[in-house]
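pasting for the record
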Amino acid sequence: MHVIYLAGGIASGKSTIAKTLEECGATLIDLDDFSREALGANSPILPQIKAEFGDDIINPAGSVKRELLAQRAFASTERTVTLEEIELPLIDKMLRDRMAELEDQERAERAENPDAPEKIVVIEIPLLDRMRGSFDMADEIIGVVCPLPARRARAAQRGIEPRDFNRRVDQQPTEAYIKAHSSHVFNNIHTADVLEQEVKDWWAMRVEQGWKKVSRKGGGVAQA
């Protein structure tokens, strides 16, 4: 199994790349899905969330009021760190459990058919710097960067308020951080169809290379 971390900030084009890689044959995992599950009803971290952010943070259905939590958790860096210290260990465990399931599936498939293809797993990661403790799971890291004005315009088209966009950008790793920790970086400066073709070309190149593990540092930036 070959595991790819896909990193990028809000409205950078990460979802477009993920969708294209899935169409190419990758198995896709979105850490935002795990985050929603971690804040859902019956989650083991709910008592900690309530203790730190108030009893009213839980809705009648038993899950976390995500918008209210965001308001309180992102009010200061200290509060943000508190939420991450509660949530990230559970997300890490959920990810490792899912990876173990996929490894079991691959072993079963190859026991039945020795020529079964290797699984290529792409994990969408919105906060790459918070995943330092899980870098051991990645065979390579690819990133996507995009000029901030273009990202801001795309976010506005999605209905994201400017203040909310700025808050999210401030909480996410910088473009320099993503470049420094990626073996390949897509520079999303053109239209979606151009980005999709660049991703398909990259996939074809990696298939030809045989999906060998790649160092996450020292990679180049894809140029259009």
